[in-house]
Amino acid sequence: MADNHSHFQHLYFILTGIPGLEENYYWMAFPLGVIYVIALCGNSIIISTIKSESSLHIPMYFFLCMLALADLGLTLCALPSMLGLFWFNYKSIAFDACLVQMFFIHSLSATESGVLVAMAFDRVVAIRNPLRYSTILTNGVVCRTGAVILSRAVCAVFPVPFLIKRLPFYRSNILSHSFCLHQDVMRLACASTRVNSLYGLTAVIFTMGCDSLSILLSYVFILRTVTAIVSGEGRLKALNTCVSHICAVLIFYVPLIGVSVIHRFGKHLSPLTHALMANAFLLVPPVLNPIVYTVKTKEIRRKIIQIFVRTKIAAES
């Protein structure tokens, strides 16, 4: 029987929403839709604002634009399956479609992590070498940095769907979430997943692990520089330029670490906990990042207000 099933795979997986609230899925789709509208509009506004305003064409805002693009990509990856489940009760996702969604979710997450490192380096240069900022972080350096971040994410995640594809699946096909994650699909396999686990761990260490250490090291340099500033006002001003980035780091890494820990060590926890943490991992950063940067960055806030004022005047005319 093992030989007969050695290469068998399900045609589709069954998605799971939030356990215990199945009867309220239709009504939950409305707040979920509002959350997605906020994420899509917020990140789109930031991207269009940075693109249209020449005064924002500096490395700090280019990296913010990359962060918004990654958040926008994550939102669009999860949107079809989540809204399909909650609004239309469409629970199935084709095997290959699940692998594609898995690839984009993990690669975009790795991309966002890399962008946060680039933003940390940007703050280090701006605080430690403000006079050389424009010569160190040129447009060419920013473009090459973005290309390296994207290439690293794609290369790190590219083998994952193929490692899943080689596994047999002939028992349960019910996933724990309303989208596909590597850990969630891997646990349904009917063969040894040692290679998948080792590669997944290696990829996480190579991307998120190295990135988190790099961000921590960057802030060590920043704090050393800030403490050397004589003026208290100068220290406060330097630290204030990092508040938005610190918030973005926490918004990204706290749900990510929570999902990873729960998948590896929280098997005894309720399915509701797994579902809420996974949804927070995909929904929180795209929704909160635009809000944080709009509130804390006066240049973006001013440009957005100007755009809406010009739009209102044009409509009235």
UniProtKB/TrEMBL annotation:
The chain crosses the membrane at residues 25-48, 60-88, 100-121, 141-164, 198-222, 243-263, 275-295. InterPro entries: GPCR_Rhodpsn, GPCR_Rhodpsn_7TM, Olfact_rcpt, OR51/52/56-like. It comes from the Eukaryota. It comes from Tupaia chinensis (Chinese tree shrew). This is Putative olfactory receptor 51H1. CDD domains: 7tmA_OR51-like. Residues 42-293 form the G-protein coupled receptors family 1 profile domain. One of its GO terms (biological process) is cellular response to lipid. Keywords: G-protein coupled receptor, Membrane, Olfaction, Receptor, Sensory transduction, Transducer, Transmembrane, Transmembrane helix. One of its GO terms (cellular component) is plasma membrane. It is found in: Membrane. GO terms for molecular function: G protein-coupled receptor activity; olfactory receptor activity. It is a multi-pass membrane protein.
